[in-house]
Design a protein that fits this description.
Length: 297
């Protein structure tokens, strides 16, 4: 197994799911290369009782109600996760902002994807942008709500402290910003962690010289041992100073969102689907599983 190092000859500390870190063989290798374990809500998801739905997705998109549910029971808490069944290869989720009773809660962020909204409303008038174009009369007459899974809130304070310490010590941190592996040819929505780590480090130490290096990886015959893989590094990203200032002033959602957009576009530049290695060699490199190396220069 080769350990990737940065051009400054510093070992990259990769973030790995705590669930994988606990596995005997993988955990042994992970410890050997200095990875940082990360607890993920998705690893703690358990099926909930009953079904859920959005009673008024247009006027109250964050209001969620249940039928036969117990939102006040074990596993439900503020900042916890509500996840929907996988549809078209993706499971959509969001966090809980408030629990109002056994059959009513408020979401921290509304579901905005077309598939998720269909699961929670049964309506067929949903546009590709998640907007409703007609009225509830177009609802599936057999709609009875959606099954769901729930997970308690995961405190990542220790992970962020470890990352900040590693970066402030002149190290490099590697992260898969989609939050997990998949076999889809396109990028999944990026998790906020990579932006929080970069902005948090720069907020505490503006002159540290931190850069974000987008990395793409294309692998073929992944089920085979020692199958061929191609890796491409994109141009390093300088985090805009105005986003760091915005982050320091408390506008975290806006600054994190803006930086995620920049990172996403940089990953798109190294993510071009390719069916096989031969095709890849005559086309721009195709890298459907991106990672990001946060590099403090």
């Amino acid at each position: 197994m080769r350990v990737i190092r940065s051009e400054a000859h510093r070992r990259i500390s990769w973030l790995i799911a705590e669930k994988s870190f606990r596995r005997k063989f993988i955990g042994l290798l992970a410890r050997g290369i200095g990875t940082l374990p990360v607890a993920r809500a998705m690893d703690n998801l358990k099926p909930g009782t009953g079904t859920i739905y959005l009673p008024d997705p247009v006027n109250e998109p964050t209001l969620l109600r249940g039928v036969g549910t117990n939102f006040e029971g074990p596993g439900f808490e503020k900042e916890g996760t509500i996840a929907l069944p996988t549809i078209n290869g993706t499971s959509h989720s969001t966090a809980i902002a408030e629990i109002r009773g056994p059959e009513e809660l408020v979401l921290k962020k509304p579901f905005t994807h077309r598939d998720a909204l269909f699961q929670l409303t049964g309506r067929k008038d949903i546009g590709s942008d998640g907007s409703f174009r007609g009225d509830a009369a177009e609802q599936d007459p057999h709609f009875e709500g959606s099954k769901f899974k729930v997970a308690p809130h995961v405190d990542q304070t220790a992970v962020y402290k470890a990352v900040f310490a590693r970066l402030n010590a002149g190290g490099c941190v590697g992260i898969f910003p989609e939050g997990g592996s998949h076999d889809r040819p396109s990028l999944l929505p990026l998790k906020a962690g990579v932006a929080l780590m970069a902005l948090g480090t720069l907020a505490d130490n503006p002159d540290c010289g931190l850069k974000i290096v987008p990395v793409g990886m294309n692998y073929f015959h992944a089920h085979k041992f020692r199958s061929r893989a191609v890796i491409e590094f994109g141009n390093p990203i300088e985090v805009p100073k105005e986003l760091v200032e915005q982050f320091k002033q408390g506008d975290r959602r806006e600054s994190v969102g803006a930086l995620l957009d920049i990172i996403y576009q940089s990953l798109v530049a190294v993510t071009v689907p390719s069916p096989d290695y031969e095709t890849l060699m005559v086309r721009p490199l195709a890298l459907p599983l991106p990672a990001i190396v946060i590099n403090k220069s």
